[in-house]
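Hey, I'm writing a tutorial for new members on how sequence and structure tokens pair up, and I'd like a real worked example in the thread rather than a made-up one. If someone can provide the structure for the chain below, I'll link this post from the tutorial.
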Amino acid sequence: MAMKPRYRRLIWIALALAALAIATTLVLRAFNSNLVFFFTPSQVVAGEAPKNRQFRIGGLVEEGSVKRDASGTKVQFRITDNHNVVAVSYDGILPDLFKEGKGAVAQGALLSDGTFEASNVLAKHDENYMPPEAAEALKRGGQTGSAMGGTKP
């Protein structure tokens, strides 16, 4: 007995909807796994940052905190939002504009000892620009926008 065209059409529509649902699920999972959130040092200290996932941390590079090893590529420094400080370790070449007292954003993961291991470090690219996330973190920390260029109030 042959299937009526109406039922055949309903089966094709159901299969198409199922394929669309599967494709949507796969796209959303891929998007979610590549999503990188931003946290301030205060949020990291408060335990709001994820433990087993990449995220960004930003603020000012604390004065006197940059320490380089003999090879020149391994660097330790601290990022602050003027309330809390997080130690960062990075193995790589820092941007030319990376300096103490200037804005920076690091992407990486938090180690079990509380150190942030960065896989990428970004620095502001001129005197008036700072990544929006870092600028907002500093505003919440009590520092004004004009002070983000490196001078303190």
